[in-house]
């Protein structure tokens, strides 16, 4: 078989994997909206969505159909090109982050070993940070292009919030990278699966707590949903949007929540590693081993998403000054202290 033929097989594999992951992410984001409404209903002692389909399971499809069929309105004074670009950029940035996530072990199909990861690059975490930073432009462009003062104020809030908490998030990861010595998410997972090693949450509990809080701020989740403070800024940075442009903004936030949960599960909780399950001893399971790993990763992600929802419907929104004080005066000093303590412990153990 020629090298050219092998390249075609690899291209087809990657295209199929990209399509599966994108559609899975969109499907999960769609039904996360349903899950959030159900969790809110349980916490507030009410039934929640229960009309569209059995147990309300078709409610997300009904919501999506409603957004698709609604009239698309572009304000007369809006910058039309940027008005259209904003939600597209937000959705694109949200979907691109899943490219470096290892979703499971390799599978054997058609006589080939297929990696369940779109791209295993040695700067995977830096790639995630770069793409997440692009999502801020979607918020800023949408708020500015609307030519609405409330949208612009909300977009400025969103950009300031993202920049503030990205600093603490990056510093919390430096301590983790001191332990792993690698920026590749695949390598980080394999290190946690090695014999005699524990998940990184054991070595970096404070780093995980800082990362989790910053992830909520990056996803604009309550109590950090200041860019969408309805009682202060009408509807936030996307109040002039309708139809699927609004849907793109809303779904991108749920995709960000899903990917953030996946990144946390990968870096701190072993990724597709199964607790108390020796993969080497069960190598005879073949492709079922990869299925078990995928299910393990998704269960961890579901737990994180539930915690996101639980916090949203339990804790009230911060004031903006409280949000900034927490980011600059609490999170960043804590992350710096965690980094220094980690470095000191590593140096002491190497003596």
Could you please describe the fold and organization of this structure?
This is NADH-quinone oxidoreductase subunit H. NDH-1 is composed of 14 different subunits. Subunits NuoA, H, J, K, L, M, N constitute the membrane sector of the complex. Belongs to the complex I subunit 1 family. GO terms for molecular function: NADH dehydrogenase (quinone) (non-electrogenic) activity. The structure is a single chain. This protein has 351 residues and is mainly alpha-helical. It has one domain (73-350). It contains 12 helices and 2 strands; from the N terminus they run αααββααααααααα. It has helices at 3-43, 59-69, 80-96, 124-145, 149-180, 185-193, 200-203, 205-218, 230-233, 243-268, 287-312, 320-350, and strands at 107-109, 112-114. A two-stranded antiparallel sheet has the order 1-2. A hairpin with a 2-residue loop joins β1 (107-109) and β2 (112-114).
Topology:
Elements: H1 3-43, H2 59-69, H3 80-96, E1 107-109, E2 112-114, H4 124-145, H5 149-180, H6 185-193, H7 200-203, H8 205-218, H9 230-233, H10 243-268, H11 287-312, H12 320-350
Antiparallel strand pairs: 1-2
Helix pairs in contact: 1-2, 1-10, 1-11, 2-10, 3-4, 3-10, 4-5, 5-8, 5-12, 8-10, 8-12, 10-11
């Amino acid at each position: 078989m020629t090298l050219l033929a092998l390249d075609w097989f690899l291209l087809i594999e990657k295209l199929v994997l990209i399509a599966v992951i994108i559609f899975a992410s969109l499907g999960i984001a769609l039904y996360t909206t349903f899950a959030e409404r159900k969790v809110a209903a349980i916490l507030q002692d009410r039934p929640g969505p229960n009309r569209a389909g059995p147990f309300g399971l078709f409610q997300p499809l009904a919501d999506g159909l409603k957004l698709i069929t609604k009239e698309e309105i572009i304000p007369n004074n809006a910058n039309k090109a940027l008005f259209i670009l904003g939600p597209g950029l937000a959705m694109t940035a949200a979907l691109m982050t899943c490219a470096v996530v290892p979703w499971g072990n390799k599978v054997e199909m058609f006589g080939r070993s297929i990696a369940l990861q779109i791209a295993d690059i040695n700067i995977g975490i830096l790639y995630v940070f770069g793409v997440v930073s692009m999502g801020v432009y979607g918020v800023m462009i949408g708020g500015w292009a609307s030519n609405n003062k409330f949208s612009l104020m909300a977009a400025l809030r969103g950009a300031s919030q993202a920049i503030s908490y990205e600093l603490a998030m990056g510093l919390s990861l430096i301590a983790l990278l001191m332990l792993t010595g690698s920026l590749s998410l695949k390598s980080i997972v394999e290190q946690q699966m090695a014999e005699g090693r524990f998940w990184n949450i054991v070595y970096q509990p404070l780093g995980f707590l800082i990362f989790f809080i910053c992830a909520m701020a990056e996803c604009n989740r309550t109590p950090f949903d200041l860019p969408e403070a309805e009682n202060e800024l009408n509807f936030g940075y996307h109040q002039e949007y309708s139809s699927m442009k609004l849907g793109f903004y809303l779904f991108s936030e749920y995709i960000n929540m899903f990917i953030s949960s996946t990144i946390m599960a990968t870096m701190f909780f072993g990724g597709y590693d199964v607790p108390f399950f020796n993969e080497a001893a069960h190598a005879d399971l073949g492709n079922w081993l990869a299925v078990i790993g995928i299910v393990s990763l998704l269960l961890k992600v579901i737990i994180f998403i539930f915690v996101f929802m639980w916090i949203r419907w339990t804790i009230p929104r911060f004031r903006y000054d409280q949000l900034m004080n927490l980011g600059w005066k609490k999170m960043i000093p804590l992350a710096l202290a965690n980094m220094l303590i980690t470095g000191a412990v590593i140096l002491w153990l190497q003596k």
